[in-house]
Specification:
Number of domains: 1
Largest sheet: 5 strands, mixed
Radius of gyration: 19 Å
Helix content: 40-55%
CATH superfamily: Ribonuclease H-like superfamily/Ribonuclease H
CATH topology: Nucleotidyltransferase, domain 5
Order of helices and strands: EHHEEHEHHEHHHHHH
Strand order of the largest sheet: 3-2-1-4-5
CATH architecture: 2-Layer Sandwich
Strand content: 5-15%
Number of helices: 11
Oligomer: single chain
CATH class: Alpha Beta
Shape: globular
Length: 268
Amino acid sequence: MLNNVFVFDIETVPDVDAARRLWDLKDLSDENVAKVMAAKRQQETDGGTDFLRHHLHRIVAISAVFRHDEKLAVWSLGEEDASEAELVRRFFEGIERYSPTLVSWNGGGFDLPVLHYRALLHGISAPRYWDVGSDDPAFRYNNYLGRFHWRHIDLMDVLSGYQARAVAKLDEIATLLGFPGKMGMSGKDVWPSYLAGELPAIRAYCETDVLNTYLVYLSFERMRGHLLDKQYHAEIARVRHMLQEANKPHLNEFLDAWPDDATTAAQP
């Protein structure tokens, strides 16, 4: 069941160029434009939130765990200096080539809608992703767009029973299961880090987030009977081996925060 799985996560910053076009803010710095955007959003929500609408986010990192045949890898798409268009293009090209099972945490509520708007903006074609059976009949009842289909598994949505009042944070679920959880920063830190030129740290953070998502996904696959206990522990060992082989500082830190016996800590 794990021979073609693509777990993904994105990190975004305010699309200050879009705000300049929409509201004629050309004389303001990026930082000040972002403050205007946040203030306008708070005004829209009567002070409820300053979290921007989906179409006003710009993607600065897309990270993935890809399990294909017997290979497993974690990485961030594109080079550090790659444009947003290149990142988005690579994401959809992967779907065109492999037609993987997509897995996310809140991907249906955030990541994919943002990717839709950015692909639209950059003129990126993604026919396989948008197919609902006109090109491939197999996609008629199981496609990437159907909320209750299985080509995209939004773990937050599925595990909550599709009930907004029951959703949980990835960090908390991962930690409860004995995995490292959030490391180094959180979503609110991405914009200040980006302004400070710390894109490598953002990409590293995104990679650890997607690792947590993959590990929760393995637990989900065991829960729904797609992995036996022996298979589950073999997959956990595969993840550890991959991280050890990669030998990168943020991945080593992830390993250090993940004791060998952690995956059985929550079991009776």
